[in-house]
Structures are given as structure tokens and as C-alpha cells.
Amino acid sequence: MKASVAIAQFPLTWDIEANLAAITSLLADVKPDEIVVLPEGALSGYGADLSALDHLQPSDLAHAMDRLAERAQRKAIHLFCGTLLFEHGTWSNAALYFAPDGTRWTYRKVNLAMSERGRLAPGAELSTLPLRLAGGPVSLGVQICREIRFPEQWQHLADRGARAFVYLTHAANPSEPAGVWRSHLISRAAENQRFVLAANVADPRQHCPSMVISPRGEVLVEAESDETTVIRTTIDFDEPANWYLGQRRQDLVKLSYREGRTGRSRPPGQDGPPKPK
With CB atoms counted within 10 Å of each terminal CB, which end of the chain scores lower, N or C? Predict the structure, then answer.
């Protein structure tokens, strides 16, 4: 089953309306049934300094989310967009999915950056998302930014049936060695034999490219670091396989998950907000 994929990158601000206008412009030429991926914090804004949250209005953000959902429905696309999200008195780092039929789904970042700890609440679930494409259903997994460093989370999503990983990031740190995060993404694709659909912020300091990677670890398309652009390719969801996952020595090494009070699987160490260090 083939599907069109569009990865969009642009510079982010802490101005919700400005971000929404940029996203609207980037969505001008999307195709019906296309999978569209935007960066981490694309709607709300994002940065290592989260003091701007003191002035971010949850009501403005909720209104912008509704407008984005309407655009996704009007364009008949499968839209993934990063945002800081205010719920039940706390902020989290989230990836939102807006479906062509108007339904929504949210993934909350499980493994928070050190700058986020104490300010944001971590997510508690690593669940897959069933997409209803024109060619049939397919499951995807979502990860955000530093979760690239935790391959067990990606493997868990693959075990749960994800055929591709949607990856949203805001990786523009000049202190990071060049090429390391790009190599991580290629590894996450090849070791799990899954597609990776990665969107980063447009920034000359970008250290993780926006790109699409095949289950063989081939980079199918890649964007220039500081260019506001949409890159496209077609992927075939029949390509992912379990050849390597099926050869794991689980008699020696096995991922284990504790059951939370709700009965949902939780990775070890994520029973509550982490303590700042």
C-alpha cells in the first residue's frame, strides 16, 4: 500500500498566529490523503528556554488547534503537528494528529529534555496510532526530539504494530556533534525495518535533518537545514518487515513494562513527573 508523505519545516516563533500562518502557507499544495509532518512545537513555539510559557495563552492555543483541525479536514490530509499543550493545569510537549474526518489523537512526550523537567509533565503511554488511508489501515508510532536517544521506545512501538515512525523535533543546538542525530534516525529505521518521517525546525544550526528514511536505512529525501520548505516522497507500507526483530535473543535480553493503575503499559521510571537534576 503506497502513500504520499510531505515533511514541512519552517522557523518557529513564540507567536501562535505567526506559526499558524506559516503552517497554512505550507499546507497550500498538500494532496488529499497525504501524510504531513510538522516540527516539534510548530504551533505553540518551542525553545530551550520555556519561560515564554508564562505568557502563552491556552485559549489562543486551543483556538489555533481548532483552526488547524479544520484545515486538515478541508484538505483531507493526515496532519501531525507539534505543540506545547495545556491540560488539567499542566503543560506537556505533544504531537497532535488531525484526521481528514475531524478526529484527533495526541502523543505526549515520554522522555523529557532536562530543560523541560520540572516545567512540563511527561507522557505515560507509548501507543500506536491507527491511520485510515485510502488504500487501507496502517499503524504509526510517534516520537519527539531527544527520544531519538532511547531505541527501546521505538522497538516497543514496532512490536505494537507501527509500520512507520513519525518524528518531530526542534534540534538546533550548535554544541551537538554534526551528523550524530542523523545517524541515530537512520539506525532507528534500519534496526526496526520501519520508515522514519522526520521534521525539524528550519535553522542554520540544525543538527538533525528533516528527511524520510526507508526500512533499509536509505535516505529517500532530505531538506536543507535553514530552508522553509516541504519535501515529498511516496512510501510503500508493504516494505516494513520483522526480519531483525524476529531474530532477537529474548532469552537473554527482553524489554519489560510495568502495568500502571489504569492497566496501560508504562516504561520503567515514568510513574510520575521526573525530578529536576
Answer: C
d(CA 104, CA 69): 8
On whether the CB atoms of residues 73 and 32 are closer than 8 A, the answer is: no
The cell numbers describing 83, all together, are 505543540
- Helix count (H) and strand count (E) of the chain? 4, 14
Q: At what angle do helices 180-192 and 151-159 cross, to 10 degrees?
A: 30
Q: How many residues does the chain have?
A: 277
Identify the DSSP state of 48. S
Phi, psi (deg, nearest 5) at residue 266: -130, 135
Grid cell listed for 9:
519545516
Please list the rounded mean pLDDT of every run of 10 residues in the chain (277 residues).
97 97 96 98 96 94 97 97 96 98 97 95 96 96 97 96 98 91 97 98 95 98 94 96 90 65 44 41
Nearest Cα to 199, choosing from 235, 161, 225, 218?
Answer: 225
CA 14 – CA 46 distance, rounded (Å):
7
- The SS3 assignment for 232 reads strand
CA distance 171 to 205: 8
- pTM value is 0.90
Tens of pLDDT, residue by residue over 227-262, are: 999 999 999 999 999 999 999 888 887 765 555 444
Q: Distance of alpha carbon 46 from its chain centroid, rounded?
A: 14
- Asked whether 126 and 110 are in contact (CB, 8 A), the reply is yes
Q: Could you count the other beta carbons within 10 Å of the beta carbon of residue 88?
A: 6
Is 129 buried (19+), middle (13-18) or exposed (0-12) by CB count in 10 A? buried
Contact 67, 23 (CB under 8 A): no
